Inverse folding.
């Protein structure tokens, strides 16, 4: 937990002052039974109204000072807890942004969301409760016992018997429930995962009438979570009744013992009332401590889950390239080179890519085609160093991608993913993700190339038109063109279009490819597509089948020499067998 709790160090002052003020409040609280005893033994016994009034005033003052101390303690505790939670969320977000795709794939989106929300909230509540009660409650419990010894040693021995019995109950339940709360949080991950899948795939679910199956799946996950919460809740729920039984038995014995000793003239009636008040204080504080333990068990489980994320390190190998090396090499070597590259995902049983070997010169357009699951996306994800090749070397401008810093390699490349993602904001704000310093001229140049000028002009506010979360107020084709424009604004030396024109009609797709050929900066372009028409004019086409490059060449060469490519082509164009033969 040190990895998480070290961030509380920024709030050292608040973390010290909160418990100090709580202990100050507790000190005044421990004095009140003595004041009550004095009122009974002196004021009431002697019928001294002035003394009673004076001691009642002292009680009120002690109460007011205790209240001010409690409010002050609460302020510092809340400030420390909320500030700590804010810091943890920032640290978690930074950590998640720094993880490689391997770690993100392993953890999962729903788990990340749970850690950032539910787990952080649990830890925040735990810190708040600990600062307020962790010292106060034990201080009251043992302070009450010590004060009881100052009144009557024999009666105080009852406290000595009661407190260990209560401690066994409280800490025994805590030891049982801590691992169970961790399992509850994992079950919550599962529920969130199912919920997220349903929300993101709601249209597909409705299209295939799978609502009942998804509801059943959600019910199963939710029932599992509910069952686990009930079990741990029942165990935690034993704490209050068991502590009440022990305390009330102690009170019965205390009153009996006190009555006998008052009858014998050993102690006064006020002393018995004071002892009873101290026992009641112990009861209240132990109930608070029990609730604190429940909160702490949840917080500890959540803290360990946060620590698991913070301890994760990116598995990407990154070695910073010396400045100047890259510029010298760039003019004499291929823009991109795959040297017998293979890729196996973490936990996968077999290779996704096997022995991929090709070179691409600067300014060339490369088409990548193959069946579903053939490894097209995996191949292009190696270029911007999203994953490490498990065998072989991926080179950019003659240097292993591992020798570039992530910032340098990502500045060289721009990728448009299969799923077009737009963020909430204006069109301009979305496009400036590519280059925050881009002018409107640069933006419109990118829009023209991506065939998205008409998208902007059709909107009332132009570039200042608001984009809803996920770009839901744009069609699929509009989103794809805008995401391509965002990549082009960067003016990258390597542009990767990962099946990013699938929603475009053939005319727009053709216009896009023509515009890419005519770009001023002559970027090296990789086009991943299912359509042979989108890549047939490429300088080089790579055909993948089950992770292997079964053909590399031009469109005409592959029609003659590559059966896989010829089958894909003929399946998309009827009556092309004769055409293929002629070519």
């Amino acid at each position: 937990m040190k990895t998480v709790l070290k961030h509380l160090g920024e709030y050292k002052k608040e973390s010290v002052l909160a418990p100090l003020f709580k202990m100050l409040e507790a000190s005044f609280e421990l004095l009140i039974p003595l004041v009550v005893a004095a009122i009974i033994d002196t004021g009431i016994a002697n019928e001294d109204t002035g003394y009673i009034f004076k001691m009642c005033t002292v009680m009120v003052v002690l109460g007011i000072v205790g209240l001010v101390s409690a409010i002050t303690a609460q302020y510092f505790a809340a400030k420390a807890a909320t500030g700590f939670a804010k810091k943890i969320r920032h640290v978690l977000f930074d950590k998640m942004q720094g993880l490689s795709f391997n770690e993100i794939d392993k953890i999962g989106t729903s788990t990340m969301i749970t850690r950032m929300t539910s787990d952080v909230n649990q830890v925040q509540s735990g810190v708040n409760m600990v600062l307020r009660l962790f010292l106060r409650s034990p201080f009251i419990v043992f302070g009450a016992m010590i004060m009881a010894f100052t009144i009557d040693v024999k009666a105080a021995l009852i406290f000595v018997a009661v407190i260990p019995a209560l401690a066994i109950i409280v800490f025994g339940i805590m030891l049982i429930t801590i691992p169970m709360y961790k399992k509850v949080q994992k079950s919550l991950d599962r529920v969130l995962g199912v919920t997220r899948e349903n929300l993101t795939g709601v249209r597909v679910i409705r299209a295939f009438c799978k609502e009942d199956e998804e509801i059943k799946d959600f019910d199963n996950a939710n029932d599992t979570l509910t069952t686990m919460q009930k079990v741990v809740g029942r165990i935690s729920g034993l704490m209050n009744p068991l502590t009440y039984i022990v305390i009330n038995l102690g009170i019965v014995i205390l009153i009996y013992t006190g009555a006998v000793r008052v009858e014998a003239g050993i102690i006064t009636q006020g002393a018995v009332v004071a002892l009873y008040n101290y026992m009641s204080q112990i009861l209240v504080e132990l109930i608070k401590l029990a609730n604190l333990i429940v909160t702490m068990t949840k917080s500890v489980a959540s803290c360990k889950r946060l620590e698991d994320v913070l301890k994760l390190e990116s598995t990407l190998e990154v070695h910073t390239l010396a400045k100047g090396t890259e510029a010298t090499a760039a003019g004499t070597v291929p823009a991109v080179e795959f040297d017998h590259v293979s890729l196996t995902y973490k936990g996968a049983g077999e290779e996704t890519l096997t022995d991929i070997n090709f070179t691409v010169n600067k300014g060339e357009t490369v088409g990548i085609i193959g069946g579903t699951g053939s490894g097209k996306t995996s191949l292009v994800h190696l270029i911007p160093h999203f994953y490490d090749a498990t065998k072989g070397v991926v080179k950019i401008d003659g240097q292993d991608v591992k020798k570039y810093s992530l910032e340098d390699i990502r500045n060289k490349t721009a990728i448009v993913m299969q799923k077009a993602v737009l963020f909430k904001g204006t069109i301009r704000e979305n496009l400036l993700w590519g280059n925050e310093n881009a002018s409107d001229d640069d933006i419109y140049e990118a829009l023209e190339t991506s065939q998205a000028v008409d998208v902007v002009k059709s909107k009332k506010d132009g570039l200042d038109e608001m984009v809803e979360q996920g770009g839901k107020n744009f069609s699929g084709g509009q989103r794809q063109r805008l995401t391509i424009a965002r990549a082009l604004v960067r003016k990258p030396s390597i542009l990767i279009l990962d099946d990013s024109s699938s929603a475009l009609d053939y005319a727009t797709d053709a216009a896009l490819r023509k515009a890419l050929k005519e770009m001023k900066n002559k970027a090296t372009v990789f086009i991943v597509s299912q359509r042979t028409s989108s890549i047939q004019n490429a300088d080089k086409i790579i055909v993948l089948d089950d992770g292997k490059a079964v053909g590399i060449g031009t469109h005409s060469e592959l029609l003659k020499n590559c059966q896989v490519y010829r089958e894909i082509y003929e399946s998309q164009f009827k009556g092309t067998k004769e055409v293929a033969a002629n070519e």
User: Anything to note?
Assistant: The longest strand covers residues 336-343. The two ends are 68 Å apart (CA to CA). Residues 576-583 have pLDDT under 50 and may be disordered.
